[in-house]
Structures are given as structure tokens and as C-alpha cells.
């Protein structure tokens, strides 16, 4: 199995931006948010069970998940959050494993916002890379890019592990609190490091 890096970070920390730089180096990217989106499109593998569990009120007219309504529900009550994750996480995991088998790059980057909360994904990766910034930056960036208000952002942040816990569990950290050039330089260093680790992993005797 190739070297697998699990990339995580709080909302608004810049996971997507960092991912683009790794992809520019030819690294295979597996994005669990993207997979979750595919699973909840019309006809997606998760939709029949979501409809059965939560009812048609959470299904849009086109047959996809009504993400706005579902977000309000799961952030208002952890029981519903757990029910949704019980449907999605096994399906996401299956697809991640399938894509790992198809990957051809020197190492693989898996983007998992809840990497530290989801044991199965945590155990799948060899190293944890955390994209970090201040909570104030998280909030301002998320407001700028989305329709979420500050209260909704705080609700999302409350469901994620603390910044301190993320940094404690990280093998590698990117501080994303300056410009894109600063971010790119850190990624360049890590990319070379991961290439070296990947070569060492391949050269180890079985």
C-alpha cells in the first residue's frame, strides 16, 4: 500500500486551497466531502436509507439531499448527526478504499475534515497533516465564502475536535495564516518529505 496522508483541519482553515497545491504536484487526491456529495445526489447510494431514516422532508425536489435542512437538524441534535454519519461513513470508507487501489501517485492525500473523530479513517492513514489557522480567521474566511452566519459556523466548529487537540495529534502542520506564497512554500517542503518517506516505505523489506 502506498504512503497515505490524512489531511484535516477545522472549517475555514484552507484545506481545499492546500489540496490544490498538492494536486499540482501530481498527487492523487481523495476528498471525502466530494464523495459524500456524490452519495447524496439524486440516485446516490445513500439516498434511499436517508429517506427511510429521516423522511421525505429532507429530500429536495430533484431527489438529492436538502443539505440546508439536514445541516440544521444534525447541528441541533447529536443523535441525528450520529444517525446520518452511520449511513454515510461506511459508504464513504468503501469508496475511499476503492480509490486508494486505483491511485498511481507516489503518495496519496485523503481529505477528511473529521479525520480525528472517525476511527476508521484515522486508522487508514500513515500520517496526519493538519492545516491550521486562528479561530478568528476560520470564521472570517467561512463567512466570506459561504452563506453561513457566525452562529452557524460556531455550531459547526463545536462538532469538531478542538484546535489544540488537532495540533496535538498532528504529525505535520501547515500554518495557513498568511498569503498563498507562504502556504505554497510549506507544501513544497512537505511534498519533498512525503516523496522521501514514500521511497523509504517502498524500499523496506517485507
From TrEMBL:
GO terms for cellular component: cytoplasm. ATP binds at residues 12-17. It is found in: Cytoplasm. GO terms for biological process: coenzyme A biosynthetic process. It catalyses: 3'-dephospho-CoA + ATP = ADP + CoA + H(+). InterPro entries: Depp_CoAkinase, P-loop_NTPase. Its main location: cytoplasm. Keywords: ATP-binding, Coenzyme A biosynthesis, Cytoplasm, Kinase, Nucleotide-binding, Transferase. HAMAP family: Dephospho_CoA_kinase. This is Dephospho-CoA kinase. The lineage of its organism: Bacteria, Pseudomonadati, Pseudomonadota, Betaproteobacteria, Nitrosomonadales. The gene is coaE.
Amino acid at each position: 500500500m502506498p504512503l497515505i496522508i490524512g489531511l484535516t483541519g477545522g472549517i475555514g482553515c484552507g484545506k481545499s486551497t492546500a489540496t490544490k497545491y498538492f494536486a499540482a504536484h501530481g498527487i492523487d487526491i481523495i476528498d471525502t466531502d466530494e464523495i459524500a456529495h456524490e452519495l447524496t445526489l439524486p440516485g446516490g447510494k445513500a439516498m434511499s436509507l436517508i429517506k427511510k431514516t429521516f423522511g421525505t422532508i429532507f429530500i429536495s425536489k430533484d431527489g438529492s439531499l436538502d443539505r440546508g435542512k439536514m445541516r440544521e437538524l444534525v447541528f441541533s441534535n447529536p443523535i441525528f448527526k450520529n444517525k446520518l454519519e452511520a449511513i454515510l461513513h461506511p459508504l464513504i470508507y468503501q469508496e475511499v478504499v476503492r480509490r486508494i487501489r486505483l491511485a498511481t501517485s507516489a503518495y496519496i492525500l485523503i481529505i477528511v475534515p473529521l479525520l480525528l473523530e472517525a476511527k476508521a479513517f484515522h486508522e487508514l492513514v500513515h500520517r496526519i497533516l493538519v492545516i491550521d489557522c486562528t479561530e478568528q480567521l476560520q470564521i472570517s474566511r467561512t463567512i466570506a465564502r459561504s452563506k453561513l452566519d457566525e452562529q452557524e459556523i460556531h455550531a459547526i466548529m463545536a462538532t469538531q475536535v478542538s484546535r489544540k487537540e488537532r495540533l496535538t495529534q498532528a504529525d505535520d502542520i501547515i500554518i495557513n495564516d498568511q498569503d498563498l506564497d507562504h502556504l505554497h512554500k510549506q507544501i513544497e517542503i512537505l511534498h519533498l518529505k512525503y516523496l522521501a518517506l514514500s521511497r523509504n516505505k517502498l524500499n523496506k523489506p517485507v
